[in-house]
Amino acid sequence: MTRVSTREPANSRTRDLAPPLLDSAGGSLPTSSTVQSWPYHPAVDDISDDDWLLPLQERRSLFGDLRFILRRELWTHRGLLYELTRRDIRVRYKQAVMGVVWAVLMPVLIVAAGALVRVAMAFVGGRPLVPQEVVGIAIKAVPWAFFVGALGFGINSLTGNSNLVTKIYFPREVLPLASTLAQMFDSSIGLGALLLVCLAVGVDFGLAAWWAIPLLGILVAFTAGSALLVGCANLFFRDVKYIVQVLLSFGIFFTPVFFEPQMFGPTGARLMMLNPVAPILEGLRLSIVYDHNLLTPVVEMARKGAVLVWSPWYLAYSAGWSVVMLTGGLLIFHRTEPKFAEYV
Amino acid sequence: MAEGRVAFQQVWKKFRRGEFHDSLRDLIPDVASRLFRRRRADELGAREFWAVQDVSFSVGPGQALGIIGPNGAGKSTILKLLTRILQPTTGRCGVRGRVGALIEIAGGFHQDLTGGENVFLQGAIMGMTRREIASRFDDIVAFSELGDFINTPVKRYSSGMNARLGFAIAAHMSPDVLIVDEVLAVGDFRFQRKAFDRLSQMRRGLPVVIVSHQLDRIASLCTHCILLDRGRIARRGSPDECISHYIMNGLRTEEAAGEGLPFAFTALEFEPRRPLRSGEWVTVTLRGEVRQVPPANLRLGLRVRALQTTKDVFVMDLSAREPRLSEPGQFVASIDLQANTGQGYLTVETVVWDVVERRERGRGPHGVIHVDDPDLVGTVNLHPRLRVETHGAFAETADM
Q1: Are B13 and B89 a contacting pair, CB within 8 Å?
Q2: What is the mean pLDDT of chain B?
Q3: From residue A100, how far is each of A75, A96, A149 by CA, in Å?
Q4: What CA–CA distance (Å, rounded) separates B371 from B346?
């Protein structure tokens, strides 16, 4: 089905800056027996199966779009995603003295900072520092470092590859997703190191520690969605990068990494848990350090009343956020993608 | 997979001059107008212009379409529309099948990675699977002639090595459609030859779209051609027709025969009107009028230049050869030229030359001779012969 409109767009100002270069043929052309008709002019050319022509005529539903992204773009380009992830990982460790130590250094620094804060809090509160608290911080530090790192790389993934974006076609989704995957690789090194330390210190992992797998899945989905969104936003407005960098560096104060939400009392704890990352981190801490089954709530009695430390709804809340972010990120990214090459 | 195909159906593409949003003052009304009033796609807003206007074509297997035109004519935009980097404002376009785009062939390289690592990266960006690249890796390295340098980071490569590796990767795709943009200027002369041969081999049976300023490449590679001028198709036809039209009218930007000159021209004709074999004769006929007796310093001349180099092949002083061209009245001057050149284009220009001031005083019509002969390199002697006809009389001068 071909849409044929011979109507000229209205207001098509022919620029009359210079006399048209090619209009005056003159009689002196050696090949003046012109062939203006051409066997493959579309007026006579029948293109019956035109689903490969852009823009696609039918407006797909959101679900159809999502299926298109996943099947036609990401799945067919999984090899490219793999290569770009490999590139991002390799480039990080090329010509670097520290090498893999980098992957561990960032979480170690966060843990050290957190431990310092907790020592101070214990001193002020006049109570001893429990080793489990430090382990809790360590378990929350690695995922947080992942989140910050992935967004930091994801935000530059499109603008930093503008030569690719303007010159070669491939689904651009793979660029922020590759940053996320590369950061996943980095963070799994950190996670492995942490695991070794935990075993050495003598933390025994209970059955509830398996909760870490769905929790990390939720975190990765949320991060990937955010990386898509900020990468795309930064392409259109370059100041998004600075806003996000500020948000990320101060985000650690609004996310329970160094502390636990229940320290803020009943209302404060609930407010703290509104941060979509908070339930993921708290869930990790509770399930791994305290071997707590996340399907049962935890209520702690404090001076100001009962504090809800954990509720299964928190898990659902975070999972909901990550689904919304990932699908929303993919869809917004996909819908704005045709404009990338013009705006980047 | 269905056979490859390239199609453009009444494609219009709008661009904007300057920054998208110069300031917030600019942004807010723009966003507001977009929210509240759906602007029609075919309206031009402030500072917008059509980069591509109503372009239609279709390329099937075995056909090769050349796109030529001056800078800013919209050639690159068309390639970007084809490769899905841009989307048309109105109209539809696309490529069916796997696209082998020889555009930015080294664009995906990461400077810190080695050549070998970049082969996999660039290959994946171009749409090859890892297995495909792995199976062709040795061929790619051999073709690029990089040898042991394949394990050196690309940032230490010379620009020639970079381009050679890029071309080698692109040349080992197995595409359904080939899109080529000025990539034949790769490396030294020998490698360029190799790349050209490889491309000729690759394009067999595929739909091909080539954009180039190297007109002789277009002539030898393409079966069809379109000439673009400011986003519009100015001419479509065989490569020869389009190239001749382009060259001739491109040369015309300089002012034609000035007023006040003693000569007036009506036509410059060529016989035969087709590409010549090397060594073939062509008759160039110049018709015009001598308005008044020209001053002794003004001579009517014929200048033949090679298109690529713009160097004179020869210049003939017609006035000196034929005194009757200094008498007022109509004249028909026929010049036989033997095209003893190799493949390429020659421009034939009529000039009014001032022998005292040693400069051009005016120009007459121009034309193009296309020598299409892959076998002969030729000499540069054109064996010109001049015949002049005045007032019905006919005389032939001796060979010069």
Answers
A1: yes
A2: 82
A3: 30, 9, 15
A4: 8
For A195, counting Cβ atoms within 10 Å of its Cβ (0-12 exposed, 13-18 middle, 19+ buried), the class is middle
Please state, in angstroms and rounded to a whole number, the distance separating the CA atoms of residues B75 and B94.
Answer: 15
Please state, as a whole number, how many other Cβ atoms lie within 10 Å of the Cβ of residue B393: 8
User: What is the pTM assigned to this prediction?
Assistant: 0.78
Q: Which residues contact B336 (CB under 8 A, 6 or more apart)?
A: B281, B282, B283, B284, B383, B384, B385, B386, B387
Closest to B369 in 3D by CA, of B186, B244, B222: B244
Per the DSSP assignment, residues forming a β-bridge with B353 are: B299, B360
CA distances to A125, A184, B108, B152 from A84, rounded to whole Å, are 49, 13, 10, 19
Beta-carbon separation of A28 and B267 below 8 A: yes
**Which tokens is A191 given?**
């996670």
Q: Which of residues 134-193 of A touch B (CB under 8 A)?
A: 163-164, 166-170
Q: Provide the 3-class DSSP secondary structure of residue B116.
A: helix
| Cα A226-A227-A232 angle, rounded to 5 deg | 100
Strand order in the sheet with B312-317: B312-317, B298-306, B344-354, B359-371
CA distance B171 to A121: 65
pLDDT in tens, A164-215: 888 888 899 999 999 999 999 999 999 998 889 888 887 788 899 999 999 9
Instruction: Write the ipTM.
Output: 0.80
Q: Distance (Å, rounded) from C-alpha A203 to C-alpha A216?
A: 20
Q: Which chain B residues contact residue A12 at CB under 8 A?
A: 42, 44, 50, 53
Using the predicted structure, report yes or no on whether residue A130 has a pLDDT greater than 50.
yes
Helix (H) / strand (E) containing B360: strand B359-371
What pLDDT is stored for residue A67 in this prediction? 86
> Of all residues in chain B, what percent are helix, strand and coil, respectively (each to 5)?
30, 35, 35
Q: In degrees rounded to 5, what are phi and psi of residue B217?
A: -65, -45
How many separate helices (H) and strands (E) can be counted in chain A?
12, 2
**B341: three-class secondary structure by DSSP:** strand
Q: Is A335 on the interface with B (CB under 8 A)?
A: no
How far, in Å, CA of A288 to CA of A291, rounded?
5
Q: Which residues of B touch A22 (CB under 8 A)?
A: 227, 229, 234-235, 245-246, 249
DSSP string, B23-86: SHHHHHHHHHHHHHS---TTS--TTEEEEEEEEEEEE-TT-EEEEE-STTSSHHHHHHHHTTSS
